[in-house]
Amino acid sequence: MAPFEALYSKRCRTPIGLFEVAQSRQKSYADVRRRDLEFDIHDWVYLKISPMKGIMRFGKKGKLSPRYLGPYQILRHVGKVAYELDLPTELASVHPAFHVSMLKKCVGDPTSIVPLEGLGVKKNLSYEEVPIEILDRQVKKLRNKEVASVKVL
Fold first, then answer.
1. H or E segment at 148?
2. Number of helices (H) and strands (E), helices first, in the chain?
3. How far is CA 26 from CA 18, 23, 32, 90, in A?
4. What pLDDT sits at residue 27?
5. pLDDT category, 70, cuts 50, 70, 90?
6. DSSP bridge partners of 37
7. Rg of the chain over CA atoms, in angstroms?
8. For residues 34 and 7, is the Cβ–Cβ distance under 8 A?
9. What is the DSSP string of 52-93?
10. CA angle 145, 146, 152 (to 5 degrees)
């Protein structure tokens, strides 16, 4: 008999048993939200890039950099939880196999993505605005001056 049981005539409740109950409860909460991701070959997915401090893996840097690249097509299944993607030549230095947690399914038609070459977008992602017509004009009167505004299409 343990000294605690002899003194108080009841069993000692150690926190070891409480941890198992709490852990199973937390696991049941987590399992409700968990979903197993599976993709088929020739599906289109986005590739998640983790913005690590000071590291430029995919040519982007900073907290305003995009979180996902793509979409890219899945070429084959590698193991149980990895997929090989059809990456462009700009990402030839990156290994093409990625874990399922790094992928996000592309919802929609990836062939409807408009390429940037035909739009007149420069390398710094800026473009020149060309006005088509003047839609409306108005003059606002303030206390001691007038401000003219024009709405342009």
1. strand 146-152
2. 2, 7
3. 12, 5, 10, 43
4. 84
5. confident
6. none
7. 29
8. no
9. -TT--SSS--STTS-SEEEEEEEEEEETTTEEEE---GGGTT
10. 150
* DSSP code at position 116: S
Which residues, listed in sequence order, are joined to residue 28 by a DSSP beta bridge?
none
Q: Above 90 in pLDDT, residue 23?
A: no
How far is Cα 74 from Cα 116, in angstroms, rounded to an integer?
23
The pLDDT tens digits of the residues spanning 87-107 come to: 888 778 888 999 998 899 988
Cβ atoms within 10 Å of 98's Cβ, excluding its own: 21
Secondary-structure breakdown of the chain: helix, strand, coil percentages, each rounded to the nearest 5: 25, 25, 50
Structure tokens at 75: 């070429």
**Residues 11/42, Cβ–Cβ less than 8 Å:** no
State both tokens at 49: 């890039």
Helices (H), 1-152: 3-8, 15-33
Per residue in 38-52, pLDDT (tens digit) is: 899 999 998 887 655
Q: How far is it, in rounded angstroms, from Cα 44 to Cα 111? A: 10
Decide if 12 contacts 5 (C-beta within 8 A): yes
Distance, in Å, from the CA atom of 87 to the CA atom of 85, rounded to the nearest integer, reads: 6
